[in-house]
Amino acid sequence: MGFDVIPAIDLRGGKCVQLVQGVPGTEAVILDPFEAAQKWVSAGARILHIIDLDGAIGGTRSNARIVARIISEFNVEVQVGGGVRSKKDVETLLDTGAERVIVGTMAVNNPPVVKELADAFGREHIMAALDSRKGEVATHGWAKSSRIAPVELGKKLEELGAGSVLFTHIDKEGLLGGVDPKPTREMAEALRIPVIASGGVASIEDIITIKKTGAKGVVVGMALYRGRFTLEEALHAAGT
Q1: So which residues are the catalytic ones?
Q2: Can you give the pLDDT at residue 175?
Q3: pLDDT of 22 higher than 70
Q4: Fewest CB atoms within 10 A around its CB: which of 202, 206, 207, 211?
Q5: What percentage of residues in the chain have a pLDDT greater than 70?
Q6: What domains sit in the chain, N to C, each tagged with a CATH number?
Q7: 124-162 in b/e burial notation, b at 16+ Cβ within 10 A?
Q8: DSSP string covering 182-224, please?
């Protein structure tokens, strides 16, 4: 696996939005999700990162039809999460054509479920979300803290069968303030499975910095939507 620059498509109320630090009410850059997907795929994206924010925040995956349509219309890998609360949710998303399903709160609250999911669907399709705020894993759409250290939980979920980890540095998310590579480097060095980083990317230099941590990819949202750089420029800098 090389290093991927992965555009984010965050869905809320049927629109593609960007939230500042995941806080409802901070919606910015609202546009049509299919236009966003077309833009990124045309620019060379190999993977799309789709999160149903209504599912993550409120528990109801109300954007499921949009997710399914994007998967069916664009010939790229899709990793999808947000409000995934059961084995049935995972099965439904994989049946829709998602390559990886992101499990966060469910995995943090009940780690053995990761083994159940990996055994049922194949570990390569199960991505564990470790969202870190002030050195602790956050859950429930980043609204609650688990009091668990990210690396500690990452090792446990890897042992249980997670095929990859999405590591989000919430303290940096959506602020366009640049990345802090240290937590991502610690996670990448501690695990054998691929780590995908997220949070804080504001420049091409940030992408290069994340690549040097040993992560296998980085999710980019606000910086792309705000035009800080183009996806083509990011892919070139990442050597993809």
Answers
A1: 10, 131
A2: 57
A3: no
A4: 202
A5: 90
A6: 4-238 (3.20.20.70)
A7: ebbbbbbbbbeebbbbebbeeebebebbebbebbbebbb
A8: HHHHHHHHH-SS-EEEES---SHHHHHHHHHTT-SEEEE-HHH
Contact status, residue 104 vs residue 139, Cβ threshold 8 Å: yes
User: Tell me, what amino acid is at 16?
Assistant: C
In terms of pLDDT, which residue wins out, 189 or 19? 189
DSSP 147: -
For residue 123, give the nearest of 105, 99, 104 by alpha carbon. Answer: 99
Tell me 237's DSSP state.
H
DSSP class per residue in 24-64: TT--EEEE-HHHHHHHHHHTT-SEEEEEEHHHHHHS--TTH
The two structure tokens encoding residue 221: 């949202």
CA dihedral 189→194→199→200, nearest 10 degrees, is 60
List the single range of 40-44, 92-96, 142-146 with lowest mean pLDDT.
142-146
- CB contact at 8 A, 8 and 231: no
Q: In this structure, which amino acid lies at residue 22?
A: G
Q: At what angle do helices 33-42 and 64-73 cross, to 10 degrees?
A: 30
Name the residue among 180, 200, 130, 186 with its Cα closest to residue 158: 130
Map residue 6 onto helix, strand or coil: strand
Q: What does the block give as tokens for 156? A: 């446990």
